[in-house]
Write a structure and sequence with these properties.
This protein is of the alpha+beta class. 36% of the residues lie in helices and 23% in strands. Strand 10 and strand 11 form a beta hairpin.
């Protein structure tokens, strides 16, 4: 059977060891070390493990006691969901620079439909590579990606060249890819179902393909129809965006912390230029301007002011930005500055945070 066009272009982006990588990002002393996220009490369990820890067999949902047995030098760190959400929002806004068809699955993974995309780039493979590079440049984190004609194959593919890799399954490769794929690699086939398939002599996709729809439904109930279709490359579930825009903003992370307010004004000038461009492009105006300051110790502060009139152009809102910067003394050197507009002239716009590239 040969699949017939037109084909969608779907990317599944999956962050590499996200929680553990964030901990290593924020604490450079942990880089290259075996760490587990979730706290180190004997009654606890591992939420996530770095790749260095995974080499010793440490994995999520494993007890801390067993993790220590497998990797005696493992370092336990606490979870920081506020930080995970913050970085996830930055990553998600990179996605929105390419398409509005973004379906987040969790804080660290999402589907993107780039069949029609904002860059006008016909190559989903190139888009995925560019997105992964931007994620690294703008957050310091690594991501892997899978690219294919539907969500199912893209998700399976994203796991193949992890970490920090990507895999494209072209339309003419889909059938052979699925026929050769071990059934335990099929997304949605857990240990119990895989064991049942093994007992039935089903080890790879081609074995699964030999079973009729009736047989699969008899063996696996409603899931039988799903297995029958996916092994034939049929999975028509669309990418379902769920985005509510309440603000529009731009921010910038600096490669070196800055402490001079004069330098900060220079940086804010550039951020304001980008924010104005976004406001004009989206035909959006706002009454509330917020200055976001993240210090070198990762503590964060916001300062806001609401005007009676709507603002859109830099000449209108930048004097307010200066007021906000000088409103209070800075408590530390600064690693990130951001500007955002709230109280918009439309309630139907979703947040657009633009993370600009690091200075070099």
């Amino acid at each position: 059977m040969k699949l017939q066009p037109p084909f969608r272009k779907i990317i599944h982006v999956d962050m590499d060891a996200y929680y553990a990588s964030v901990a290593q990002l924020d604490n450079p002393e942990l880089k290259g070390k075996a760490i587990a996220v979730g706290g180190g009490g004997d009654r606890g369990v591992v939420s996530a493990a770095s790749y260095e820890a995974r080499k010793f067999g440490v994995k999520s949902a494993m007890s801390n006691v067993l993790a220590k047995q497998k990797c005696p030098h493992i370092i336990f760190v606490n979870s920081d969901f506020a930080r995970y959400k913050e970085l996830s929002a930055q990553i998600r806004e990179i996605f929105y620079d390419y398409t509005d068809l973004v379906e987040p699955l969790s804080l660290d993974e999402a589907y993107l439909d780039v069949t029609e995309n904002k860059k006008g780039n016909p190559s989903a493979n190139d888009i995925a590579r560019e997105i992964r590079q931007r994620i690294f440049e703008e957050t310091g984190l690594r991501a892997s990606a899978g690219i294919s004609i539907n969500k199912f194959i893209a998700k399976v593919a994203s796991d193949i060249n992890k970490p920090n890799g990507q895999k494209t399954v072209h339309p003419d490769e889909v059938i052979s890819f699925l026929e050769e794929l071990p059934v335990n690699k099929f997304y949605g086939v857990g240990k119990v179902t895989a064991a049942k398939m093994y007992n039935l002599g089903i080890f790879v996709g081609n074995d699964l393909k030999q079973k009729s729809l009736e047989e699969l439904m008899s063996l696996f109930g409603k899931s039988g129809t799903h297995y029958y279709n996916i092994v034939r490359g049929i999975h028509n579930s669309p990418v379902k965006p769920n985005r509510i825009r309440k603000s529009l903003a731009a921010e910038r992370t600096f490669s070196e912390n800055i402490s001079s307010e004069i330098f900060m004004i220079e940086k804010l000038e550039k951020i304001a230029d980008e924010l104005e461009r976004r406001m004009l492009k989206s035909e959006t105006k706002g009454k509330t301007i917020t200055l976001k300051i993240k210090y070198s110790d990762f503590t964060q502060q916001t300062r806001s002011k609401t005007k009676s009139n709507f603002m859109q152009k830099k000449s209108e809102f930048f004097p307010v930005v200066k007021e906000l910067l000088y409103q209070d003394k800075l408590i530390n050197s600064v690693r990130l500055l951001g500007l955002s507009f709230g109280n918009l002239n439309t309630e139907k716009k979703a947040p657009v945070w633009v993370q600009l590239q690091f200075d070099f």
